[in-house]
Write a structure and sequence with these properties.
Helix content: 40-55%
Strand content: 15-25%
Shape: globular
Oligomer: single chain
Order of helices and strands: HEHHEHHHEHEHEHEH
CATH topology: Rossmann fold
Distance between the termini: 28 Å
Number of strands: 6
Structural class: alpha/beta
């Protein structure tokens, strides 16, 4: 089961504060849309992994549903994998310090090609999909992931974000995407955090200034408008 968080209640409360506006986007141009799947890797999903997010196991089917709808509509699926930078102890020393006792397992687990680095096998990835490495929480951090450059080259103006962890890498990516002027939709039932409270906090933060909140079913409906 996905997180027990009612995104409609969040949108209702938001509408009361901003003149009736709930979500902003009422349609999607599939040709200009990318579904960006964040960090659905063995190291985040597999039982006993260094940074396991147990809820992430429950969203694979929903991510696959969105990916299939995107392919059918003519959009793009991009699977982004956290990849340990070669010089992580220098270029991102603060993050390694904050990881504390997890630092060594995290560093080695997400080296390119390592088991924990690989995409979770229950995700459906086809030859027409794309996989990209990222070296920071946000897939839009300059110089650490080629996502923005590839989206610009493809004429993409809308990103749908799914994956894990909702309130860290997914939220960071959504915030940066909006500030780069992308239309952002967070797939509420295809994101996973360590708790309902953390998932809800991210949804509340993003809804006002950064992203629309939509379920997989609602995203499918946007393609038919």
């Amino acid at each position: 089961m996905p997180h027990d968080v009612d995104h409609h209640a969040i949108l209702d409360r938001l509408a009361a504060a901003r003149g009736g506006v709930r979500n902003v986007f009422d349609a999607i141009d599939p040709a200009r849309t990318a579904h960006v799947v964040i960090d659905m890797q063995n190291g985040f999903v597999e039982e006993g992994a260094p940074v396991e997010v147990p809820m992430a196991k429950t969203i694979s089917g929903t991510i696959n549903r969105i990916s299939a709808a995107i392919r059918k509509a003519g959009g793009r699926n991009i699977f982004v994998q956290y990849t340990t930078p070669e010089d992580v102890d220098e270029c991102w020393s603060i993050m390694m310090t904050r990881l504390g006792g997890l630092a060594d397992a995290h560093r080695e687990g997400f080296r390119e090609g390592a088991h924990y680095w690989n995409i979770w096998p229950e995700l459906e990835v086809t030859p027409q999909d794309r996989a990209l490495p990222k070296g920071r929480f946000s897939a839009f951090t300059h110089g650490t992931c080629p996502l923005h450059q590839e989206l610009v080259a493809a004429g993409i103006d809308t990103v749908i974000i799914s994956g894990t962890v909702t309130n860290i890498c997914c939220e960071s990516t959504a915030r940066d995407a909006m500030q780069l002027n992308y239309r952002v939709i967070l797939a509420t039932d295809a994101n996973a955090a360590l708790s309902d409270e953390e998932h809800a906090a991210a949804l509340n933060s993003l809804a006002f200034g950064f992203a629309d909140l939509c379920s997989a079913e609602e995203i499918e409906g946007l393609f038919s408008q």
